Amino acid sequence: MKKGKSYFIRTFHINGFLLFVSMLLIIIRVPFKLLEVFLQHETSTVLADYSKIMTRVLREISNVLDGMILLSVGMLLILVVPELIRRIVEDSLTNWFYSIWVSFRLRKFLKRQADHEGEGIFKLKQHNKSIQKSIIDIRNQNITYIIKLPNDVQVQKIILDTKDILREEISSRFSEYSFSNFERYKHLLIINGTKMS
């Protein structure tokens, strides 16, 4: 296991992807079901054979979509349930929700909207892409915040230059925790906070 990466952090992006896929499949599934219901109630004798064929085709597509929805939701539950149980037993379920919410808030805080000091569009995109992968894991006794650094040296420098601002932002949000300085581990930038007694 990589230094500083909890189960929550390791599964965060996978869970987000599975949730997105599940919702997308459900959205796609609804029109197929509506068409199927519409064709089943078709009363025109001219379209009766066509309706039967199309209903059968739509039912098959719906069955495939249902299977894919069940698979993605099942995989999501397999990944999320152990974390939820661990949080209930050892920590707090509130911290799980709060970790997700604060991760998105910090991403929004760090995202660059416009060109700063002559940065190119590519650098801006790379910076924001890297920030979109940042995650905070809030626990009763400790907090871990991780940013995955991009391969581009100049973009890394932009992120590294914001370390102090970010540390101050996190410290102000969690004043009851004492935070270390950011540490570099391979392509990860990590800060840890420990609850003060």
Structure description:
With 197 residues, the protein is of the alpha+beta class. It has 2 domains: 7-90; 93-195, Phosphorylase Kinase, domain 1 (2-Layer Sandwich), CATH 3.30.200. The protein is 64% helix and 13% strand. The protein contains 6 helices and 5 strands. The protein has helices spanning 7-40, 48-90, 93-110, 121-131, 153-161, 163-173; strands spanning 135-138, 142-148, 177-179, 183-185, 188-195. Strands 1, 2, 3, 4 and 5 form a 5-stranded antiparallel sheet that branches. The chain starts with 6 loop residues before the first helix and ends with a strand. 15% of the residues are buried. Keywords: Membrane, Transmembrane, Transmembrane helix. The chain crosses the membrane at residues 12-32, 64-85.
Summarize the structure.
Keywords: Membrane, Transmembrane, Transmembrane helix. The chain is an alpha+beta fold and 197 residues long.
